[in-house]
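dumping this here so i dont lose it
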């Protein structure tokens, strides 16, 4: 499945959820709803997939991405009033750590659903 199609499907799922629940819930509620929506659309996904983080060849910790969809797209979700630069930096770091080309950062916490498509510049083909 192409990245554009996958990200469109993910955004569609998020819009359905936001239109139904609106803002004001904790992130975990939106995660659970997304899992249900992904199953309805037959999207292959992993939730809270753990990844080791290395510094100079030494494992220094682990992080968990909210979702990996169709083995290709990272999805990081938030439930905050307004996305901040730190949220974008976190999602971009996850994209690089997971060695994925594209991802989405979606915020359910604002009155209108917010989303940003992300690209791993270190993983783009020349």
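and the seq i came up w/
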């Amino acid at each position: 499945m192409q990245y554009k199609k996958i990200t469109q499907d993910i955004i569609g799922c998020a819009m359905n959820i936001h239109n139904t629940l609106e803002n004001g819930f904790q992130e975990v509620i939106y995660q659970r709803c997304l899992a249900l929506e992904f199953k309805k659309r037959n999207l292959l996904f992993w939730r809270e997939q753990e990844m080791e983080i290395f510094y100079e060849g030494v494992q220094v910790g682990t992080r968990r991405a909210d979702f990996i969809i169709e083995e290709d797209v990272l999805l990081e979700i938030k439930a905050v009033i307004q996305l901040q630069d730190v949220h974008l930096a976190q999602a971009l770091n996850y994209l690089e750590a997971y060695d994925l080309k594209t991802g989405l950062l979606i915020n359910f916490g604002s009155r209108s659903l917010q989303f940003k498509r992300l690209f791993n510049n270190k993983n783009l083909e020349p």
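Strands lie at 45-55, 58-69, 73-78, 102-107, 114-119.
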